[in-house]
Amino acid sequence: MTFRIGCYGVHSYEAPYFENLNKYHYDLKLLPEFLTHDNIDLIEDCDAVLLRGNCIADRQNLSKMAEYGIKLVFTRTVGFDHIDLDAAAEFGMKVTRVPGYSPRSVAELAFTQAMMLFRHTALATTRTSQKQFKVTPEFFSPEIHESTVGIIGMGNIGYAEAKMWKALGARVLAYDLSVKEFSLDTVEKFVSLEELAQECDIISIHAPYVRGKNEQMISRDIINQMKPNGVLINTARGELVDHSAVIDALKENRLGGFAADVLVDESQVFGHNFDPSEKLPNETITELTNLYPKAIITPHMGSLTKPALEGMITTSYENFHLALTENSYPNEVLKK
């Protein structure tokens, strides 16, 4: 008997990897759409589901899955805030995640965004695309080896990015809930969030988002303490940043630049194409895109590398295999 898995959010270029890595011969239903309230019925014939970020696994959709007899609700992501864990527990569902995959994938994107803003290449290429080739004072920049970089969240991704900056000679500081001893070959010291804001030329966020605990940890007060030419990068979760404060700081030239691969309510725009004259359905995202090149927005593409994709698919298949053959869930996510 085959085991049918409904996989939401599978891009066309990802499909061959899902097929080629399928060593357990699951019956895969690959769906390009993210899970919404309107397409939950597509998995009515499935035994399990595999999600990704921006899929809506709220109580309403989990209730429908329960009606379909689905008990395994797995995600191929590190984050799991798109799944209502309380509802999943009530319906007797098991939820697992992928605890890690190619930390360099997200770290490289954060590093790239930071350098674009730090060396003003986004501004310069915008100008040259408009046939403006004069060098202006806005292009003037310090160099990385004489700068300080702060990493918020010293996990595998944060550590990978820290090593990139250290290799270029930067001083690296970190903020985390506890000192991560493994990183002290790269990080000069762990400091408070306030000291990080005051000391660093570039700050990159890699902290996990915990609903009800750390919303807008990068608050207006923290942003106001950053250097006027400081650069803030967020490739973690949009909920961690006060975007209203970011927008005000950019408009008032109290912040050098902001880049994000994640936003609050990003599913309203990510995955969609809009006509240039069309109004976006989210005012905050509209304001941020209008601030380009001081604000750089990418559409949640941090994990879009070959090693990362292979890692998330392989681990997801192993999660299903252990569940079905040993009733084991080493990467289970439990409600708090």
UniProtKB/TrEMBL annotation:
SUPFAM superfamilies the UniProt entry points to: Formate/glycerate dehydrogenase catalytic domain-like, NAD(P)-binding Rossmann-fold domains
Molecular functions (GO terms): D-lactate dehydrogenase (NAD+) activity; NAD binding
Domain of life of the source: Bacteria
The UniProt record lists the keyword NAD: yes
Domain D-isomer specific 2-hydroxyacid dehydrogenase catalytic span(s) in chain numbering: 10-333
Sequence ranges assigned to domain D-isomer specific 2-hydroxyacid dehydrogenase NAD-binding in this UniProt record: 112-302
Gene3D superfamilies: NAD(P)-binding Rossmann-like Domain (3.40.50.720)
Keyword line: NAD, Oxidoreductase
Family named by the database record: Belongs to the D-isomer specific 2-hydroxyacid dehydrogenase family.
PANTHER family registered for this protein in UniProt: 2-HYDROXYACID DEHYDROGENASE HOMOLOG 1-RELATED (PTHR43026:SF1)
Designated name of the protein: Lactate dehydrogenase
Record organism: Holzapfeliella floricola DSM 23037 = JCM 16512
